[in-house]
Amino acid sequence: MPLDFYEDEDEKDSGSKNGRKDFDCPECNANNPLEEALADGQEVLCNYCGLEFAVKGSDNGRFKFKEL
Predict the structure, then answer these.
(1) Which of 25, 32, 41, 57 has its CB surrounded by the most CB atoms within 10 Å?
(2) Residue 58 to residue 51: CA distance in whole angstroms
(3) Element (DSSP H or E) covering residue 54
């Protein structure tokens, strides 16, 4: 069964030298600040709608999110 990942449409870096420290929820579109930079394999929680997502990084620096 193929994995359905939602691609993060915000291509701009959050300004951190260590990578993006926020993400836009694919479900409710709320911006969620993070303590640490996004990383491949990480699980993140939307602080607004409460959904959890698995993070998948790509070679071009963009991230995709799959609802858990």
Answers:
(1) 25
(2) 22
(3) strand 52-57
| Domains of the chain: residue spans and CATH | 6-67 (2.20.28)
Q: Which residue type occupies 52?
A: E
Q: Copy the structure tokens of residue 6.
A: 């939602």
Find the length of the chain.
68
DSSP string, 4-36: --EEP---S--S-TT---EEE-TTT--EEE-SS
52 token code pair: 């959890």
The pTM assigned to this predicted structure is 0.72
**Per-residue pLDDT tens digits for 26-65:** 999 999 999 999 999 999 999 999 999 999 987 787 899 9
